[in-house]
Amino acid sequence: MTSVSLLHTADMHSRLTAEAAQQLREVREQHQALLLDSGDAIGALNVTVRRSEPIIELMNAAGYTAMAIGNREYFFRKRGMLHKTHSAAFVMLSANIQPVQGNMGHIKRWTMVTAPDGSPVGLFGLMPTMIAPGSWVERLSDMRFLPWEEAAQQAVAELRGQVDWLIALSHLGQERD
What is the DSSP-derived secondary structure letter of residue 47? Predict the structure, then answer.
């Protein structure tokens, strides 16, 4: 097993510029790194009517590998969350969100990617519980939150033994991260 270079961003809140995206791309390519984000790249909490979020287009240009869903990407209905994040050319992750029915579309609980050196890397995302179990909002939502500890244990159990590197992209907050 060799080393894997990582570049990481978090809490950009739509502040990524085209110039900064180009710089990230250059640094990522120069260091043959995986470019990862821990959530809250999108600035607005609500769902917009745009075809795509400008920040996600800039992240695509920078060459992001994966991103954890943060509270800014979250929406209490699966359709709204998928709309906010649909233009991502990179993997969107949240191990602790599960749909009531069906699947989460392009949002995955965990994934495996190949690092530039050929090493298999496991990635999973964690976000804070946005809807309290048993609340009236939960009845309106078509998604449920698993406790993050349980979701992390599931991801590790699924990925361990298949990867050389295992990375949690957490948006749980500084104390839990």
Answer: P
Could you tell me the CATH number of the domain that includes residue 110? 3.60.21.10
Cβ(25)–Cβ(59) below 8 Å: no
Q: Considering the domain boundaries, does residue 106 fall inside one?
A: yes
Interatomic CA distance for residues 141 and 135, integer angstroms: 10
HSE value, Cβ hemisphere, 13 Å, CA-based, for 137:
10
Phi, psi for residue 48 in degrees, rounded to 5: -95, 165
Structurally, how many domains does the chain consist of? 1
Question: What is the crossing angle of helices 54-62 and 18-30, to 10°?
Answer: 30
Segment 117-176, tens digit of pLDDT: 899 999 999 999 999 889 999 999 999 999 999 999 999 999 999 999 999 999 998 776
State the residue range of the domain holding 122: 5-170
Separation CA 131–CA 56 (nearest Å): 25
Query: Quick one: how far is CA 149 from the chain centroid?
Result: 17
pLDDT in tens, 15-71: 999 999 999 999 999 999 999 999 999 977 666 656 678 999 999 999 999 999 999
Q: Residue 175: inside a domain, yes or no?
A: no
Does residue 121 lie within any of the structural domains? yes
